[in-house]
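Exercise: predict the fold of this chain.
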Amino acid sequence: MAALISALAATTAAILAAANLIVSGRRESRKWTREVLIDTLSHFLDQAYAATKDAEAIRQARTDGSRELAKAIEAGAANRQAMISAMSRLRLLADQDTVTRANELRAAVKDLLAAAAAEPFTDEKLHDAKSAVTRGIESFIPAARRSIHV
């Protein structure tokens, strides 16, 4: 009888240990996913702000006739490429609304950089493109916050 009770106790302990591993594993997986999502969302937003600064640098270089124009265009392209890379992670980790808002913001940034480098250049087109990026950021942030449950 003592052997039966001992066997039942050992079996129960093993079942409880397995259940604990499963639950803690899921919790850890959710924690990791949330951390990666937060990093990706903030990186994406940082790149949008940086590209906005790049567009201003492009405009300034064009106005001044500076040799920094190519460098500013290259920096804008690099920030836009970083946004495209972040979109892949967002498509895997974020909800559909966040992905949609991120894609709208990415497109607005692309248009802003194009407006800054366009021939002929107009301040009106640049202003409209900056406004679109601002609206994109204002739309993206609440979606991102919902995605991470803040």
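Check your answer against the key: The chain has one domain: 30-147.
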